[in-house]
Amino acid sequence: MSNVEKILSDPVGETATLAPKPKITAEGAGIRFGSIVAVEDFTTVIREREFVSIIGPSGCGKSTLLYAIAGFLKTTSGVLKVDGKPIVKPGPDRGIVFQEFVLFPWRTVLRNITLGPEIAGLPRAEAEERARKWIRLTGLGGFENAYPATLSGGMKQRVAIARALTCEPDILLLDEPFGALDVQTKNYVMKDLQDLWIAASKTILMVTHSVQEATLMADRVLILGARPSRIVADVRIDLPHPRDPLDQRLGRYRQEVTEILSAEVDRAMKGERGQ
Amino acid sequence: MPIGFQILDRALRVIRFLLPILGLLLVWELAVRTGLAQAGILPAPSTILARAVELLGLTGERAVLFGHILASLRRALVAFALAVAVGVPLGFLLGLSEEAQLWVSPILSLMLPLPAVAWTPILLVLFGPGDLTIVIVCFLGAVFPVLYSTMQGVRACGRQPVWVVRSMGGSGLDVLRRVLIPSSLPALITGFKLGMAHSWRTLVAAEMLAALTSGLGYMIFAARSYMDVSTMFVGVVCLAAIGMLIEHVLFGTLEHVTIHRWYARDAQTGGRQ
Q1: Within a domain: residue B18?
Q2: How many CB pairs under 8 A join A and B?
Q3: Vertex A64, ends A60 and A69: CA angle to 5°?
Q4: What end-to-end distance do the CA atoms of chain B give, in Å?
């Protein structure tokens, strides 16, 4: 019996009939580049409309894993599935947001956001209609005709998020989405993203190295170990959304995740020093 | 800024640009007039201007300058167009394929520093003097900078912008059209500038060696037989002025409507800051 079947037939799964369907399933997924093993034996189930955060020491292969789920990289062992079908290539069902925004400087804000519908072959008017909704929800109104070079980091990341959401993906993949933002901006964008998640009911998978981000936003935090990485802990944050960063209970979750993560970082550092 | 001010601002900029050139001409004129320089070797700007007017065809039978300019421009532009037609697609191929790059880049690094004029005698043996030889030499001068810049531009794009389009279900054509071409455009324009400049520079030498009856290079070289220094200077000035106009007006405008707008450089600075 595979790990996934074990998880699916878990006795606690009395609620499983009520629980949302599995959206992303990983069965012993591994990725290696030549002789370097980036990810090893990654096994988990992410359900529909779940917000899951992957956290781990730097260089543990968490972004690699996200890229594999996006379909940019191939697994070298095991299987990654979306809706029960193995992932073979990227697709509009999975939207991605990168740390460095990756906007197209030759397109205005509006044209960046309409890129997905344009590629899907929608007429321009319809593409713009779709984009307007997310422009409004991400607070970008009035900036439609600005070029990305004139925007602040926080605005750029909103454009990237709106661009991904305009493709109406089922799954939103976030690759350290707040890594390039200053603290104040980050708090705003995080708040917005939580509201968007509640409004849009998407499955979100977010890679981060910040315990604070992970615990504040996610339903579940998967902690990856040092390379070759595998899941060392799967912490469920049992608090309603939206959450208050000053909540005492959140503080306890932060502490729990930090402790597990610190032990992993220590192990990684020792490994690097060859002890 | 009101439109009137913009025009005034622009005019002041042009004047500011021309001022040092006018200063140089004035010093030159004075040097000849006071006998500091020998007029037989360095004719005064006024003498050159008079000769230019004569050659431009306002006074009769020596009106040949336009013909020479057109012949030169045609050759340089045909060579440049060929260089773009070959260099850009090849640059994309080499920028995208590691394998192709491994094979071709040693040859490229050998060809890039080679002055194209060196091929002229060989081509003369092959094709004889005339347009074909000149255009091939100019092409060889222009193609490598175009190719090299294109390749650099494509390689600088990185994988994430490509992934963005892929994750929207974009095809290979979408990636080319919506990511690779626009993202490498700044590098492409640089390549075009360099390519055209190389084509124009190579042209003069090639025309001196291989032109039969026309071209600025031919005009300069032919004037040598009559010790006609003024005509030589007219040719040199034309080469410089036309080269400058191509770079500033043609490519300056191209940059202005593309990368300067995208990267929000101040639209008032006129493209060459």
Answers
A1: no
A2: 67
A3: 130
A4: 20
Nearby residues of B72 by Cβ (< 8 Å), 6 or more positions away? B203, B207, B214, B215, B216, B217, B242
To the nearest 10°, report the CA torsion of B209, B212, B214, B216.
10
The pLDDT of residue A199 is 79
SS3 letters across A41-103: EEEEEEECCCEEEEECCCCCCHHHHHHHHHCCCCCCEEEEEECCEECCCCCCCEEEECCCCCC
Please name every residue paired with A77 in a beta bridge, in sequence order, or none if there are none: A30
Q: Which of A92, A102, A147 sits opposite B168 (nearest CB)?
A: A92
Using an 8 Å CB-CB cutoff, list chain B residues near A94. Answer: 167
- As for how many domains chain B has, the answer is 1
SS3 state of residue B34 = coil
Which residue range is the domain that position B236 belongs to?
38-269
CA-to-CA distance for B130 and A59, rounded, in angstroms? 63
Q: Which of B157, B166, B168 to mutate to test the interface with A (most CBs of A within 10 A)?
A: B168
A192 vs A89, residue with greater confidence: A89
pLDDT tens track for A63-105 = 999 999 999 999 999 999 999 999 999 999 999 999 999 999 9
Q: How far apart are CA B178 and CA A117, in angstroms?
A: 13
Residue of A nearest to B181 (CA): A106
Residue B169: list chain A partners with CB under 8 A.
90-92, 119-120
Strands A22-33 and A77-82: antiparallel
DSSP assignment string, A207-261: EES-HHHHHHH-SEEEEE-SSSB-EEEEEE---PSSPPTT-HHHHHHHHHHHHHH
Cβ–Cβ below 8 Å for A120 and B169 = yes
Please report the domains of chain A, with CATH numbers, ordered by start residue.
Answer: 3-93+169-273 (3.40.50.300)
**Calculated CA dihedral for residues B66, B71, B77, B78, nearest 10 degrees:** 150
Test the B interface: residue of A94, A101, A119, A163 with most B CBs within 10 Å: A119
Q: Which residues of A touch B (CB under 8 A)?
A: 67, 70-72, 89-92, 94-96, 98, 100, 102, 104-106, 115-116, 119-120, 147, 149-150, 163, 167
In a domain, B14, yes or no: no
Which tens digits make up the pLDDT trace of A56-72? 887 778 899 999 999 99
Q: Do A90 and B159 touch (CB under 8 A)?
A: no
Give the minimum alpha-carbon distance from A8 to chain B in angstroms, rounded to a whole number. 29
Q: Would you tell me how many other CB atoms lie within 10 Å of the CB of residue A36?
A: 10
Chain position carrying tokens 């999975």: A94
Residue B124 lies in a domain: yes
The CATH number of whichever domain residue B78 belongs to comes to: 1.10.3720.10
Report pLDDT for A268: 74
| Helix orientation angle between B229-245 and B65-96, rounded to the nearest 10 degrees | 40
Q: Per the domain annotation, does B249 fall within a domain?
A: yes
**Nearest by CB to B164, which of A67, A102, A149?**
A102
Residue type, A2: S
Nearest Cα to Cα of residue A189 among A270, A101, A60, A74: A101
